[in-house]
């Protein structure tokens, strides 16, 4: 009688990948007040007053500034919340998310 031998392979090919990270980028505009930008950076992105002022002034001078890096879902949720807070006050403030290289 033929015998069936089952050989179990060790699962050496199972890999755990790092989650891809996404930058949240602050975009300058001519209408949103500086203090409001700082307030949103502090409340939504938990920056200190000093960090928030530096990020705001960098975007103001250069056009854009990276705020922070998160997993995709968190970056998108924070971006949406920050934009929502600005729209509620009638400001055109914009944040974008983009994958990190
Ligand atoms: N440029 C705006 C002003 O002079 C301030 C500002 C800074 C707006 C950064 C957006 O991402 C921004 N009132």
Task: Provide an overview of this structure.
It is a single chain. The protein has helices at 34-45, 49-62, 72-88; strands spanning 21-27, 64-71, 94-99. By secondary structure, the protein is an alpha+beta fold. The chain has a domain at 32-99: Ribosomal Protein L30, Chain: A, CATH 3.30.1390. The N and C termini lie far apart (59 Å). The mean pLDDT is 93.
Write the layout of secondary structure elements.
Blueprint: E1 21-27, H1 34-45, H2 49-62, E2 64-71, H3 72-88, E3 94-99
Antiparallel strand pairs: 1-2, 1-3
The structure holds L-tyrosinamide.
Mean pLDDT: 93
Coarse shape: elongated
CATH superfamily of the domain at 32-99, please? Ribosomal protein L7/L12, C-terminal domain/Adaptor protein ClpS
Strand ordering within the main sheet: 2-1-3
Tally the beta strands: 3
Q: Give the DSSP E fraction (strand runs of 2 or more residues).
A: 15-25%
Order of helices and strands: EHHEHE
* CATH domain topology of the domain at 32-99: Ribosomal Protein L30, Chain: A
Please give the radius of gyration in angstroms.
22 Å
Largest β-sheet summary: 3 strands, antiparallel
Q: Tell me roughly what share of residues is in helical segments.
A: 40-55%
What structural class is derived from the secondary structure elements?
alpha+beta
CATH architecture of the domain at 32-99: 2-Layer Sandwich
Distance between the termini: 59 Å
Which ligands are bound? L-tyrosinamide
Give the number of helices: 3
- Give the CATH level 1 class of the domain at 32-99: Alpha Beta
List low-pLDDT spans: none
